[in-house]
Design brief:
This protein has a single domain (14-217), classed as P-loop containing nucleotide triphosphate hydrolases (Rossmann fold, 3-Layer(aba) Sandwich). The protein contains 8 helices and 7 strands; from the N terminus they run αβαβααββααβαβαβ. The protein has helices at 24-44, 60-72, 90-94, 102-106, 137-141, 144-156, 172-175, 194-206, and strands spanning 48-53, 78-82, 118-122, 125-128, 159-163, 182-188, 211-217. A hairpin with a 2-residue loop joins strand 3 and strand 4. Helix 1 crosses helix 2 (60-72). The chain starts with 23 loop residues before the first helix and ends in a 5-residue tail after the last strand.
């Protein structure tokens, strides 16, 4: 996912979201990651990717959002889903209302999936926020509603990026193993331990989840 010596930002701050003011080197790094990812997905056939990290505060949400943005810039129709229904941040990063979203649909409060999606948040990019934090996130994710959502997404979008909780806390990313092409793991320089990475990879193998690659980030916040 990353060319040598290229590191991607990880901070939970608006200024680290890709825009016209993003430094060239940062944009180039994301473009390189996009190229590698799309090459991997072309061989798989499935276009749904989960982004996670080994531990909290390693930058998965920022990098998931930026991967969605940089992919949408190719002209592809992209959906970003905030599946971290415990500590969601995508709506904060994008200044979106979070009164309805993923939990609303999976919990049966909103039966029309299209009504739980914010359209054209960026050119070619739609977003489903997490919705109100539910008492049973893992149960919702493992339910039939997730299959319905991903079938809808696969039929309406070229690519789908799912921001999932860190795998050291919960195994939500692995619960979707049969529904997605694989996972991207965000690691943070000076924070993520080799032991954490080994455990993360072992969990992926046990759940038969494909690891598509790693993104190495070097900013100090989430």
């Amino acid at each position: 996912m990353r060319r040598k010596n290229e590191r991607l930002p990880v901070c939970k701050s608006e200024k680290f979201i890709l825009s016209g003011e993003t430094p060239f080197a940062v944009r180039e790094a994301y473009e390189a990651a996009r190229t590698e990812l799309l090459r991997a997905l072309a061989a798989d056939g499935r276009k749904i990717v989960a982004v996670t990290s080994c531990s909290p505060s390693e930058g998965k949400s920022t990098n998931c959002l930026n991967l969605a943005v940089i992919t949408a810039e190719t002209g592809a129709k992209v959906l970003l889903v905030d599946c971290d229904m415990r500590k969601p941040v995508i709506h904060t990063l994008l200044h979106l209302d979070n009164k309805a979203g993923l939990s609303s649909f999976l919990g049966g409060i909103e039966n029309d999936v299209s009504r739980a999606i914010d359209r054209n948040v960026r050119p070619n990019l739609d977003v489903m926020t997490s919705g109100p934090i539910p008492p049973n996130p893992a149960e919702l994710i493992s339910g039939a509603g997730t299959d319905d959502l991903l079938r809808y997404a696969a039929g309406h979008y070229d690519y789908v990026f799912i921001d999932t909780p860190p795998v050291s806390a919960v195994t939500d990313a692995f619960l979707m193993n049969t529904r997605i092409a694989g996972i991207i793991i965000v690691v943070r320089e000076g924070s993520t331990r080799h032991e954490d990475i080994r455990e993360c990879i072992a969990g992926a193998k046990m759940s038969n989840t494909r690891v598509l690659g790693f993104i190495k980030a070097n900013c100090a916040v989430k």
